[in-house]
From TrEMBL:
Pfam families in the cross-refs: CarbopepD_reg_2 (PF13715), Plug (PF07715), TonB_dep_Rec_b-barrel (PF00593)
Annotated compartments: Cell outer membrane
GO MF annotations, alphabetized: siderophore uptake transmembrane transporter activity
Membrane topology classification: Multi-pass membrane protein
Protein name: Membrane protein
Domain TonB-dependent receptor plug: 111-215
UniProt entry tagged with the keyword Magnesium: no
């Protein structure tokens, strides 16, 4: 009986004990009340764990009351919650420390606190706010040391990224690595990007020959494990307009100016009666369109199970140009599939495939005779259309030259299109062989095809250089491919209590190959774009009408990296890469690129104490050698790429000849990079400071066209002098960035960011026989406008120093003669400085009159959240960059900007703007008169948004609904007279892709970046 009673008592207690175990469901929200998917939820001191689904919900079974749940998520403070009920809600707060965030560093990752190199990260939140049409735009002003300049504001135009300055006269763009393979940043959909990591110093040495210009690592978005299917739709629409129109003279002002000019030149007045002319035609109003549409839509579906994650997305961008209507535009479609699968406990598969298709139409821009050049120079006295309704012809008088034409006719007769298709991606496997050791392999690939077609309509503009005597169509097809195979192993271990070691060793195989064919056909049927196809042309040409090329470039690399830390406060990393490349001759195919980095977390030292003001302090330094092999293929051998014309049997025959003189000693450029920096957290981790001092010395610059003996035939058509390693450039500077985040109340939070970069660029060596390289052009028939020369910034402007205006003949008589510049000076002409003091003004007095490289760049960013409202503003500033005003044709009858109204008209009237005359002067030579300070401050983005209360939106099955309005490129504060002080495009290099800095910053009338007004919608289901 007693035993039965005891059993009943035990059963009762057991039942009571089990009754204390409960199933807990919960929801995790961020600090604004939105659900957080993918949050780690773990029972403390237990193996039971889960993650929140798309709705931020989770469920744990069989928990006892009083158990503790640990909730953690990257970017938020880890919280512990005691179980007191079956249903709980947890609101996470952002983690200002963020030192445990993982940063991608190439072939691996590190916690942020352990990083010893100069590394910066841009996340998807910033991309969501900026809404860039091209991702490069989001780097401007958000990351210290990174400067982004536009080649043009036309839709789809490429942008130039420069990390810590310009170091070479060739390719200066960083290498972009997308999920482990070499890719193209400009064609990606911004909403597919999770993070962008910029490696600015010797940390990038693990990429060897492609790392000298810096490395940009892109991580695309993936789904999260154990989460429901998430559907995200983002859409915006807007309209564009020019940010600026230049103040040209109206018809009456132009006629009066021309009369004065002709009178000063002793010629008859062209406009004896100016009454009734009025304002005439504003040609900029004619070419610039208003309310130009831009539309973007993208859809992402993502989610995951216990062993699989997926993300599928598609996007559509359609942007028209603010000039040219349907003759200028960009359309881009992308599709992407990302998949991660745990094939077993040890093997993981990850793949990411992206398809991109875009079309682009362009106009003649940024040069003599471009659309904007003509819009600025055609006189306001001319009408766009004649009495017969046809577009008018600009007279072919001496005063208007042969290149100024009606810009509306130029637009109407522009016919071209460009279609581009690309598939790129990677397939990777990770295999955990044993504890601490993982073997990773990946295949990356890019395959693209492009087709272009340009039609030259038979037309006459009245004796201009644009006249086309015979219609033609040129078609080109390009096929580019590359693939890479990476295989590397990573071993991570700890020994003792305080030592942590991680080693990585691997190999990379890279191959790039492709071909192109271009041909021209003459006599297009009906002289029409609709019939512009080579298959329909029957015209015969006596000159060669087709070209082609093939290329094949390969690289084999081995690399290793060792990372060690002691107690998490003494950090060390060493890496080396061996590259062999077919771009260089037999004796220089192999190069070695070593680097070391180190860090000291001073705040972890015992003597540092527990400072409430200074929470974290890390000193880091790096030094290493990196390479740059971005030159055309086959420079070390002779190719039959030149032209040869000879007489054979009494007939003129076209043949081929040797092109560029070969140089078997070609090798890559070497970049020695040194960096020392500080990472600091202040005031309870609310303020984050980063400061860096750096020196980047680029040696063995690959300089083309080094003079050699004419016996080699370098003067023949298509031939050229060789490319040699013959230069050195150094960039040094200081970077500083500060970020402040504060949650002032449950309803209001804000963050501030500021960064600044000071940069000095200096050429140390140019060994080409002359001691300098020339490039860029100014006016017509003038010497090169820019130089690369020892002791000067690369690409500095080379001209005369203006020293005011001659007010009278006595000043002229007392000044050295300026006759060598083309004409005797007269009162009202520009006075030039005798720089060398030899008593005469001639070419020996040319000097540095400015350069396009800014002395400092900076960004200031503000974000605020109040309840369901959010507001953001991003700005950028460039200080100390100069530009050459070259968009005004110096012909006597061309129109002018209205600053000429303050010209010299008599003694004492002006000491800055010269007189006007049709007579000969030296006022139009390149001088400081044409060089302007192009410093500017730009409000890049302003956006305000409203997120519907989740309690309301979720009733409709919508987890997030946000509406926003914004303006991109709102306003630019500058004294520069041109369209865009931030634009810069130098002459194209021999590779046909990159642009030389020698000649950048010369403004022919840059197509301005448009101001864009946006209305947008974000919906998550």
């Amino acid at each position: 009986m007693k035993s039965k009673l005891l059993q009943m008592v035990l059963l009762l207690f057991t039942s009571f004990a089990f009754s204390q175990n409960i199933d807990v469901t919960g929801t995790v929200l961020d600090d604004s009340g939105l659900s957080l998917p993918g949050v780690n939820v773990k029972v403390k001191n237990s193996s039971q764990s889960t993650t929140t689904d798309f709705d931020g919900s989770f469920k744990l079974t069989g928990l006892s009351k009083g158990a503790t749940i640990v909730i953690s998520y990257i970017g938020f403070r880890t919280q512990e919650v005691e179980v007191t009920a079956a249903k709980i809600t947890v609101k996470m707060s952002e983690d200002a420390k963020s030192l445990d965030e993982v940063v991608v560093i190439g072939y691996g990752s590190q916690k942020k606190r352990e990083v010893t190199g100069s590394v910066a990260v841009l996340d998807s939140k910033t991309l969501d706010i900026l809404k860039p049409a091209r991702i490069e735009q989001a780097l401007q002003g958000t990351i210290a040391g990174v400067n982004v300049t536009t080649q043009s504001g036309s839709p789809g135009a490429p942008l130039d990224i420069r990390i810590r300055g310009i170091a070479t006269n060739g390719q200066n763009s960083p290498t972009v690595i997308i999920d482990g393979y070499v890719g193209d940043l400009g064609i990606l959909n911004p909403n597919d990007i999770e993070t962008i990591t910029v490696l600015k110093d010797a940390q990038a040495a693990i990429y060897g020959t492609i790392a000298a210009n810096g490395i940009i690592l892109v991580t695309t978005k993936m789904g999260k494990k154990n989460s429901k299917t998430r559907v995200s739709f983002n859409s915006y629409t807007g309209f564009q307009e020019t940010t600026r129109k230049l103040p040209t003279l109206n018809a009456t002002e132009y006629a009066l100016l021309l009369n004065e000019s002709y009178a000063n030149g002793g010629r008859a007045l062209p406009y004896p009666n100016v009454s009734g002319l009025g304002k005439g035609t504003n040609w900029q109003d004619e070419v610039f369109n208003k309310g130009v549409p831009i539309i973007n839509n993208d859809l992402t579906i993502s989610g995951g199970s216990e062993k699989m994650t997926y993300s599928v997305s598609g996007s559509h961008l359609d942007q028209e140009g603010i000039i040219g209507g349907d003759k200028s535009g960009f359309l881009r479609n992308t599709a992407r599939v990302g998949l991660g699968v745990d094939l077993s406990e040890k093997i993981k598969l990850k793949t990411n495939v992206i398809y991109t298709y875009f079309t682009r139409k362009t106009l003649n821009e940024n040069g003599l005779g471009s659309v904007l050049f003509n819009a600025l120079n055609v006189p306001a006295t001319l009408n766009p259309y004649g009495a017969d309704g046809n577009l008018t012809l600009v007279p072919s008088t001496t005063g208007l030259g042969t290149e100024i034409i009606n810009p509306l006719a130029q637009i109407e007769n522009s016919y071209n299109d460009y279609n581009y298709k690309k598939v790129n991606g990677n397939f990777g496997l990770d295999y955990k062989i044993f504890k601490g050791f993982t073997l990773a392999s990946a295949i990356g690939f890019n395959t693209s095809n492009s087709e272009s077609r340009t039609f030259a309509k038979q037309i006459s503009y009245g004796g201009k250089v644009f006249d086309v005597q015979r219609s033609s169509v040129t078609q080109k097809a390009v096929n580019d491919n590359n693939y890479s195979f990476d295989l590397y192993g990573t071993y991570e271990t700890k020994f003792g209590e305080d030592h942590k070691l991680e080693g990585t060793i691997g190999t990379t195989i890279f191959k790039e190959f492709g071909n192109s064919l271009s041909a021209t056909g003459f006599d297009v049927p009906n002289n029409s774009w609709e019939y512009a196809d080579i298959s329909l042309t029957k015209g015969i040409s006596e000159t060669l009408t087709n070209t082609s090329y093939n290329y094949d470039q390969r690289r084999l690399s081995y690399f290793g990296r060792l990372q060690y830390d002691y107690k998490g406060k003494y950090l060390f990393s060493a890496m080396i890469r061996r590259d062999s490349s077919t771009r260089f001759g037999p004796g220089n195919k192999v190069g070695y690129f070593p680097s070391v980095t180190g860090g000291w977390v001073i705040s972890d030292e015992g003597f540092f104490g527990d400072s409430k003001f200074l929470n974290f302090l890390k000193l880091r330094a790096s030094y290493g050698t990196l390479g740059n092999d971005q030159i055309p293929n086959y420079g070390y051998i002779g190719l039959l790429s030149g032209e040869a014309t000879y007489i054979f049997d009494g007939t003129l025959v076209n043949g081929t000849a040797t092109g560029q003189v070969p140089n078997p000693n070609l090798k890559w450029e070497d970049a020695e990079k040194f960096d020392v920096g500080l990472d600091i957290k202040l005031l309870n981790n609310k303020i984050f400071l980063v400061a860096d001092y750096f020196i980047d010395t680029r040696k063995d610059l690959l300089i083309p066209n080094i003079p050699v003996s004419g016996i080699t035939g370098t003067g023949a058509p298509g031939a050229s002098s060789p490319t040699l390693n013959a230069g050195t450039v150094r960039n040094s500077g200081f970077e500083f960035a500060i970020d402040y985040k504060e949650k002032l109340s449950d309803s209001f939070s804000m963050s501030l960011g500021y960064n600044v970069t000071f940069l000095k660029n200096e050429v140390l060596e140019v060994n080409n026989g002359t001691g300098f390289l020339e490039g860029g052009s100014f006016g017509v028939g003038q010497p090169a406008a820019a130089r690369m020369q020892v002791g000067q910034p690369i690409g500095y402007f080379y001209g005369y120093k203006a020293d005011g205006i001659f007010q009278n003949q006595a000043e002229i008589d007392a000044h050295p003669s300026q006759l060598a510049l083309g004409a005797n000076a007269a009162p009202g002409d520009i006075r030039y400085a005798d720089v060398n003091g030899d008593g005469v003004i001639d070419t020996k007095d040319k000097t540095n009159i400015g350069d396009a490289i800014p002395e400092a760049t900076m960004g200031f960013n503000l974000q605020m959240n109040y309840k369901n409202l959010d507001f953001a503003v991003f700005t950028f500033a460039s200080v100390g960059n100069d530009m050459v005003r070259n968009y005004e044709r110096t012909l006597s009858d061309a129109n002018r900007l209205n600053y000429v109204l303050d010209r010299w008209t008599g003694e004492g009237t002006s000491n800055s703007t010269p007189r006007v005359t049709t007579g000969a002067t030296s006022n139009n030579v390149l001088s400081t008169y044409f060089v302007e300070d192009a410093s500017y401050v730009r409000i890049q983005n302003v956006q305000i948004g409203y997120t519907l209360n989740p309690n309301v939106s979720q009733k409709a099955g919508i987890t997030k609904l946000r509406l926003y309005a914004g303006v991109n490129n709102l306003y630019t504060f500058t004294k520069y007279k041109g369209f865009d002080p931030g634009a810069s495009a130098g002459p194209q290099n021999q590779d046909g892709i990159s642009r030389s800095p020698i000649g950048s910053g010369i403004d022919y009338g840059f197509y301005p970046v448009p101001r864009t007004y946006l209305l947008g919608l974000n919906i998550n289901f």
